[in-house]
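Quick question, first post here. What does this chain look like in 3D?
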Amino acid sequence: EVVMIQTPLSLSVSPGEPASISCRASQSLRHSNGNTYLYWYLQKPGQSPQLLIDLVSNHFTGVSDRFSGSGSGTDFTLRISRVEAEDVGVYYCMQSTHDPPTAVQLPTQTSLGVVAQLPMCCLSGEQAQQSLSVSVRGRCWGARGDG
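> Answer (accepted):
Ran it through. Tokens below.
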């Protein structure tokens, strides 16, 4: 079974800044047909996961061109050119080149928090509870409503 690992575990950025997430597979994801079946997903707080990028670098329908994917073999990167508040959530990569298909597992998914104004809030990505915080006008709200 292919193991997927992401770094970093959490990011905290200001709107307009770039962000980058790396994904590494335990073996090459290049299929014998020449395709690389690597996908990037975003799960926003309280929502189901949504596909951002398929086949390493192809935008899924309706996905902003602020998102881009790159990489080959075992190493892949998701980049956000200019982060917006709506980008807050948990990002993860998945492969379907090899059976069974595998995705990065908790707690190695990546939580992205967008800091609208100082002070910064802490992000946590521990075990089964992936929560993120956004700082707005100096106050902090958690995705689980524990502001």
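The chain has one domain: 4-114.
The radius of gyration is 15 Å.
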